[in-house]
């Protein structure tokens, strides 16, 4: 009998205070995710990427255009994960610049079809829509599968039963998607149809000439040929 696969959930935490309410929310979500998956008979483990200690390296990577080794390690950890919990504090009615800067260093195809729980914390309930106004479009651009239920915690929410109910709903959605295997099936089935970054940090990025498909219309034109394949050869839709 094959050993049971243990899924990996990675928390990306952009909280910088100590103690951090953002980290507290992320930890609650992570534990509830483990519980929801266990109830379905699925084993999972959680790893964390705390962006605060990487702030200097992230800034240096943005300026140089080349991810620092520590940042590269964090990106590789994301690539190896089956699901993501993205948690950011809200500053000035928007997600933290630290979180956005880290996201700017991620290849567009690194997280294709990975399920993501979106979460944020702030000093006022007035900023609760930042999760859906800022985080959801960002992760949609990265072609992930954001869960329908987004999570936001203001100071008054910590003592409320409603926050626990919302966390349970979001983690239940995550567990259902992971159990279905839909994300992996989507990524595997459509990988060739997505636009990718050559030499990027995605797990299956093209890194050498042997990985390049020269039979696309664009590559045939670039090598002096025509957009149409030779007579009798069926052209795949790309």
Automatic annotation (TrEMBL):
Domain of life: Bacteria
SUPFAM superfamilies in UniProt: Flavoproteins
NADPH-dependent FMN reductase-like domain segment(s): 8-158
Annotated keywords: Flavoprotein, FMN, Oxidoreductase
InterPro entries referenced in this protein's UniProt entry, alphabetically: CE1759_FMN_reduct, Flavoprotein-like_sf, FMN_Rdtase-like_dom, NAD(P)H-dep_FMN_reductase
PANTHER family according to UniProt: FMN REDUCTASE (NADPH)
NCBIfam families in the cross-refs: LLM_duo_CE1759 (TIGR04037)
Protein name: NADH-dependent FMN reductase
